[in-house]
Amino acid sequence: RGACRTPRRRRSARAGAAMAAPAVHQLQGYKRHITSEFLKDRYPYLEDINGHLKRDDVSMAFGSRLFPRLVEQLTTPGMAPETLCEALRTICDLCSNQENKCEAIASDVVAAATNLLMHESVLVKRDAARVIGSMALLIVGRSNMPVGNTAMAKKLTSSTGAGATLPRLAKLLFDKDELVQMNAARAMQAITVFRDGCQQVVDQDTVRKIAQYLNATLPDIPRTEPLSLCLLYLLQTLAAVTMYANGGMKDLFGVSFIKNLLGFLERVPEDGKLPHAPPTESMETLRQALRVLWHCGNDPRGRKETLQAQGVRVITGYLMTGDPKVREAAVCALNVASLETQGKRDILEHSQEGLATLLNNGDSETPYLHETCVQLVRCASELPAFRFSFARRIVEAKSLLEKIYGTAALAAIGPLLQPKEALATRTKAAEVTVYFLETQSEGDRIKVPPVCPTDNGQSSADFALEECIDIFHNLVSLLHEPTAKDVAMRCLEALCRSKRPREELAQLLADSRVDPPEACRADLQEMASGGDAAENWPRRPKRREAAMGYVDGARQVTALGDRKADVVSA
Predict the structure, then answer these.
(1) Is residue 113 within 8 Å of 167, Cβ to Cβ?
(2) Inter-axis angle of helices 352-360 and 324-337, to 10 degrees?
(3) Which of 79, 89, 407, 489 has its CB surrounded by the most CB atoms within 10 Å?
(4) Torsions phi, psi for 361 (to 5 deg)
(5) Residue 261 in contact with residue 289, Cβ under 8 Å?
(6) What is the 3-state composition of the chain as percent helix, strand, coil, each rounded to the nearest 5?
(7) What Cα–Cα distance (Å) separates residue 319 from each residue in 268, 290, 352, 353?
């Protein structure tokens, strides 16, 4: 019986432990002292009704005294670092809404936190930077930062000095503690959420300090998560400053910043994930780095530094990354690089495949990416070598050629008709040529080199005659190929609907400078001398079908003599 009691006691002990209430962790400053505002009148004989309150006891007051009480503790000399940290954390916890932030700013929280940025305690500096970042999300808080702690009493600023907020945050970037660096960078990012904060960062010479810090840490990949987040926040700050602030990028040139940033992008693993950062933050870091390069590329100095550091080759590696926003930023960075002649050459060498893939992806890419990519290709196509090479790569995409070049695509695909090209390539180029000769579309309005036909009132046939070298020689040579004869004849028919191409073809036949097959010679002569009737070509379909080897709707491969007999019988 005694042996049976022990297990019951153990079970009851375990049940009691399971039913025990969990420990409740109080919030920062949640030591409430309930008093009445009429207490002094009700008990006039009491000399001090607040005597039980301690100066270093962080607690939440009521109403308008909520933040002034905390600020008094932050500005009291000799306050313990633990008490300062608790008061700063209480302010951060209470400022989760705009109303409380306004009350905190009106109570000079910005000045008190600025004064503590240079505190000797690392923990105090961490929480002071957090408070600054929270207050910076309101324009009223940002407007107090150029003043900083200069309005405080000299006895409170004698040890740390008086000054604006941003220079002190910039000094924290070089602190030995990684969390201090991260919180300082986070505060800078919060300051630059709007244009006034971006300009303030430039005017306070903070961009130069950020560039110095990044040059000291890049191109190495951050070795811890706080440093990875610090890099992200600083890149977000620079991306905003270089976009919205006047003179925001002047301190980034001539200091090897762009070279180091490109070196960092080159060292990132192929999957795009930083070793010590979450996947979302890793992709955002890459996106912000590319955005900084894009914004700096709007200045000629930034473009030249990017090209000297082989930036096009590095950026091209991000055209096929898995994140669409990263791809967008990479296309934008290449777009500004293409403004330079050397940039066009580098894009010709490194970026053709990636750009063609993005353009062929269609609806799977965002409209902004697609349109920017089209603009990039048009800009790079000012280099003839790129225009011819890229047209060869997308020759099968008629709609894409039409959108990028319009009718001017005829000049880009003209070299693909030459006899030295493969027959399949020549046939495909002929099909595209027929399409543009027979189609008038919105693409003709695009101002793309060498010329926009509609500007001069040209027809597509006249434009092809001027810009496609030896087009008649190339098409006539295709008539000797059975598989390409049909499409070559259609090209010649479309060309001969205009007067100038008909005259050119007539002169070539008269001078025997082209050698068409005998079965097609009569049709070519009729096209060349057609006059107004050639506008409605084709005519005499039976004879044309016989010349192409069609008899009763079936394809017949016959000897030359048999083909002549078919023509005569038709």
Answers:
(1) no
(2) 130
(3) 407
(4) -70, -20
(5) yes
(6) 65, 0, 35
(7) 14, 11, 11, 10
**Rounded alpha-carbon distances, angstroms, from residue 117 to 142, 143, 144, 171, 456:** 16, 18, 15, 9, 68
Asked if 95 and 104 touch (Cβ cutoff 8 Å), the reply is yes
Q: Which strand (E) or helix (H) includes residue 60? A: none
The burial of 570, by beta-carbon neighbours within 10 Å (0-12 exposed, 13-18 middle, 19 or more buried), is given as middle
Residue 363: pLDDT band with limits 50, 70, 90: confident
**What residue ranges in 73-206 does DSSP mark as E strands?**
none
- Omega before 219 within 30 of 0, i.e. cis: yes
As a whole number of angstroms, the distance between CA 498 and CA 466 comes to: 13
What are the tens digits of pLDDT across the range 138-156? 999 999 999 999 988 888 8
C-alpha to C-alpha distance for 385 and 381, rounded to whole angstroms: 8
Read off the pLDDT of residues 400-416 as tens digits, 9 standing for 90 and up: 998 898 888 999 999 99
Confidence check: pLDDT of 445 > 60: no
Q: Is the pLDDT of residue 537 over 80?
A: no
pLDDT score, position 63: 72
Residue 161: count of CB within 10 angstroms of its CB: 12
Residues 463, 457: contact at Cβ < 8 Å? no
Mean pLDDT of the chain: 84
Cβ pair 276, 223 in contact under 8 A? yes
The answer to whether residue 69 scores a pLDDT higher than 60 is yes
Cα–Cα distance for residue pair 150/492, rounded to 1 Å: 83
What's the CA gap between 249 and 306, in Å, rounded? Answer: 14
Q: What is the pLDDT of residue 533?
A: 38
Report the C-alpha dihedral over residues 115, 121, 122, 125, rounded to 10 degrees.
-10
Place of tokens 């949640």: 30
Instruction: Read off the tokens for 560.
Output: 């030359």
The total of other beta-carbon atoms located within 10 Å of residue 229's CB is: 23
